[in-house]
């Protein structure tokens, strides 16, 4: 058991070095997630060793397994200096400071809330619309809320949305509306124009783009009381 513990500790130390040396945002995010898993495994193994040495059989109930809940909902705001996200989590104020971490890169953030009501909560936002100043970005824990403050590299510049993916969807929708007018002055069918444009983008987009299109289409359907149907993609 002790040999396995030592091996895992060495593996974790090397993983930390790789994370610190990583440059690409996706690589950093993947290494950060793997690091948290290994840290949990190490803590579990250490607890088992302590239990065994004390004559108490180690059981799975000693360190219960926690599930990771992926967060997708948040409120968005901004000032001249900061872009702000507000993530609602009931009871988050009772989690220790070290249990709520937010890792920033120039174009992404990774919020992790550990052991809130027996679960871990994770929010990952990639491809931020503009670069942020990592050293001046931070998070605050409030009552039932985590507030994330991302320092703008270009103060005073307004962000139309949070990510480049959202911006791409908005631009495509604007382009679709601009192309609706016909040469003879008659308008083309708006539904057909938007459907074709969004279908093409959906087919060629990555997973984030597809998710944003699906969300935008759902919102449009709600506004039109179901008059338009989402095309098969």
TrEMBL record:
Q: Which of UniProt's keywords are assigned here? A: Acetylation, Coiled coil, Cytoplasm, Nucleus, Phosphoprotein, Ubl conjugation pathway
Q: Please give the Gene Ontology molecular function terms for this protein.
A: S100 protein binding; tubulin binding; ubiquitin protein ligase binding
A GO term from the CC aspect = cytoplasm
Q: Which residues form a coiled coil?
A: 1-48
Q: What does this protein do?
A: May be involved in calcium-dependent ubiquitination and subsequent proteasomal degradation of target proteins. Probably serves as a molecular bridge in ubiquitin E3 complexes. Participates in the ubiquitin-mediated degradation of beta-catenin (CTNNB1).
Organism of derivation: Nyssomyia neivai
The subcellular localization recorded is:
Cytoplasm; Nucleus
Q: Which residues form the CS domain?
A: 69-163
Q: What protein am I looking at? A: Calcyclin-binding protein
InterPro entries, per this entry?
CacyBP_N, Calcyclin-binding_UBL-bridge, CS_CacyBP, CS_dom, HSP20-like_chaperone, SGS_dom, Siah-Interact_N
């Amino acid at each position: 058991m002790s040999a396995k513990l030592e091996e895992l500790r060495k593996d974790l130390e090397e993983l930390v070095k790789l994370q610190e040396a990583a440059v690409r945002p996706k690589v950093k995010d993947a290494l950060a997630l793997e690091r948290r898993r290994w840290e949990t495994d190490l803590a579990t193994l250490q607890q088992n060793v302590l239990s065994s040495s004390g004559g108490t059989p180690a059981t799975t109930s000693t360190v219960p397994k926690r599930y990771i809940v992926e967060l997708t909902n948040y409120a968005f705001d901004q000032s001249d200096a900061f872009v702000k996200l507000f993530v609602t989590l009931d009871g988050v104020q009772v989690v220790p400071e070290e249990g709520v971490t937010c890792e920033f890169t120039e174009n992404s953030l990774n919020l992790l809330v550990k052991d809130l009501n027996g679960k871990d909560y994770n929010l990952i936002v990639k491809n931020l619309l503009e670069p942020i100043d990592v050293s001046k970005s931070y998070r605050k824990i409030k009552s039932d809320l985590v507030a994330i403050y991302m320092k703008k590299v270009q103060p005073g510049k307004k962000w139309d949305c949070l990510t480049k993916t959202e911006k791409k969807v908005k631009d495509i929708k604007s382009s679709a509306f601009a192309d609706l007018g016909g040469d003879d002055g008659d308008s083309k069918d708006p539904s057909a124009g938007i459907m074709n444009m969004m279908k093409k983008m959906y087919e060629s987009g990555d997973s984030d783009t597809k998710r944003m299109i699906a969300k935008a289409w759902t919102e449009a359907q709600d506004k039109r009381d179901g008059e338009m149907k989402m095309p098969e993609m």
